[in-house]
Amino acid sequence: MTETTCAEQTVALVEPTIEKSEQITTKPAENQVSKENIAPRKTMVYATVVDDATIRETGNKIKQQLFIKFGFLKPKPEEVKLVSIEKYYQLYNAVYGKYAIDYYRKSAYSIPVDEEVRKVILLNNEFLPEHQANITAKPNIKLEGEEHLIIENQAFLVFNHQGKEVNPNMLCYAPSENFPQDIIAKFGLKEPAQNLDVDLIKERIVKHPKDTNRIISETFEVNERTAVYYPIYKVKFANSNNSKEKTVEFDGVTSKILRQ
């Protein structure tokens, strides 16, 4: 789930002469922006709110369901043994960015006039009507000009260590560790790729118009970017009847089941 908004404003200019005093930039290459402002990335390690005892108790409540046969046959509680409880951290990247482009595009306008009209004068310029191939259509005059547009995009997204976008609600509110670097070192957690978050949100919101004639200004901003290490418990159970094993993962903040 990604929150993305887009706003576009258009102003048409129909003038034979366009004022050139504004600052004009050349057309950028694909996915390049003339002005960028990227905030430094912050690192946060969510504190583990639940403990091993809570996870053990929660696991015992569902352990029989892991080995159900034929939809209703399940082993006795004493037949399902807890093998191990392991805590690890899942890396998520949260990033918020904005993109805006102020530009002009060329445009042409066809205006029908009466059959009897021989000449049209607009802004001290003369326009001669042109007759259409369709004899029933009115003649028209053609005006060439520029349209002024402002396009703004913004988005907030969260993705995992593989660069796959996930629901932002997966990162519920939780207190953070006071010394995150100690946790990172203790568990040997990998740092996220240097610019992966910036590249992904840039790909999402930076959309160069194909009909750009001249650019007044163009900006790409990343105001917030955070690497979040989220605690997860991996619990393994074994069925003593057939030696089969099942693994369940629990949220280290809420103790909810994540995967099984």
Main sheet specs: 9 strands, mixed
How far do the termini sit from each other? 23 Å
Please indicate the percent range of residues in DSSP E strands (runs of 2 or more).
over 45%
| Overall spatial form | elongated
Low-confidence spans = 10-26
Q: Sketch the topology as an H/E string, one letter per element.
A: EEEHEEEEEHHEEE
The residue fraction in helices comes out at 10-25%
Q: Let me know the average pLDDT.
A: 86
Structural class: mainly beta
Total E-strand runs: 11
The number of helical segments is 3
Radius of gyration: 31 Å
**Integer count of domains:** 1
List the helices and strands and how they pair.
Blueprint: E1 3-13, E2 35-38, E3 42-45, H1 52-62, E4 80-112, E5 120-122, E6 125-127, E7 140-160, E8 165-166, H2 180-187, H3 196-205, E9 214-239, E10 245-251, E11 257-259
Parallel strand pairs: 2-9, 3-9
Antiparallel strand pairs: 1-7, 4-7, 4-9, 5-6, 7-8, 9-10, 10-11
